[in-house]
Amino acid sequence: MEGTPVAVDAVRDAGPGTVALELETPEDFDPLPGQFVLLRAVPETDDQRGADEDDAVARHYTLSSPLVGETFELTVGVDPDGDLSPWLADLEPGATVHVEGPFGEITYERDRDIVAVAGGPGVGPAVSIAEAARDAGHDAVVVYRDDEPAHVDRLERLEDEGATVVLVDEDDDERLREAIEDHLEDGQLYAFGFHDFVTVVAETVDDAGGDSDEALIENFG
């Protein structure tokens, strides 16, 4: 199988329909917050017993840990009908998956204040960048749209440490736009989410007098 085999250290509940997958760090793996990996595995489901490497399923996941030490974290949204995420959510420590990367040019180098705007699974990289900013002594704003937010404990810890966190209901584009406009000048803007979400973010930046070309936007497709 392609990629580097890594062991699962832990799988933790991170919110409704979301898990945090903690993986052992492979040698020479030194990503920056905002980057992602390609994860490959052969899910051993009832209808795939005896499957081989040709049946591997691959998905991209953005890192959700601000630092990489002996382990690193990926945030996985669990789709009950998905062909990989439900299996990942049920993994036990010691199981093996394969990773490639890191990939991506949307990075944070702990050098400035940030505004991280997240939709759905974009909360993973948004939280990691905010935590990295606070650890480096910079200000951080997280604007997060989701009816069932994940990583609530980390968001609350960020608030306790002085960051600004704005939670927005899933269908409330008006509130999302207001929050972006309110914090547009508060730091380098990052945005993570699916196409419709990041399109709204980019349009809002431009309408508010900013330049969406200067925003660091990761479109999940």
From TrEMBL:
Task: Give this protein's Gene Ontology molecular function annotations.
Answer: oxidoreductase activity
Q: Which domain of life is it from?
A: Archaea
Q: Taking every annotated instance into account, which residue ranges of this chain make up the domain FAD-binding FR-type?
A: 1-109
- Full protein name: Oxidoreductase FAD-binding domain-containing protein
Taxonomy, top ranks, is: Archaea, Methanobacteriati, Methanobacteriota, Stenosarchaea group, Halobacteria
Q: Which InterPro entries match?
A: Cbr1-like_FAD-bd_dom, FAD-bd_FR_type, FNR_nucleotide-bd, MRET, Riboflavin_synthase-like_b-brl
SUPFAM superfamilies for this protein = Ferredoxin reductase-like, C-terminal NADP-linked domain, Riboflavin synthase domain-like
Q: Which PANTHER family does the protein's record reference?
A: NADH OXIDOREDUCTASE HCR, PROTEIN RFBI
One Pfam short name: FAD_binding_6
